[in-house]
Amino acid sequence: MGNDRLKVLMVGPDRSVHGGISGVVNNYYDAGLDRMIDLCYIGTMVEGSKWIKLLQAAKAYVRFLIRISKYDIVHVNMASDASYYRKSVFIRTAKACRKKVVIHQHGGNFPEFYEKELSDRGRQRVKKVLSMGDAFLVLGTAWKDFFGTIIGRDAITVLPDAICVPEKKEKQYGMHKILFLGRLCKGKGIGELLTVMPGLREQYPDVRLYLAGIWEDQELRAQALSLGECVTDLGWISGATKQQYLSECDIFVMPSYFEGQSVSILEAMANACAIVASKTGGIPDMVIEGDTGLFAVPKDAKTLEEGLLKLLADPELCRMLGENARRKVETEFSLDNNIKQLLAIYESVSCRGQHHEK
Question: Sheet harboring 38-43: ordered strands across?
Answer without folding.
Answer: 38-43, 7-12, 73-78, 100-105, 135-138, 156-158
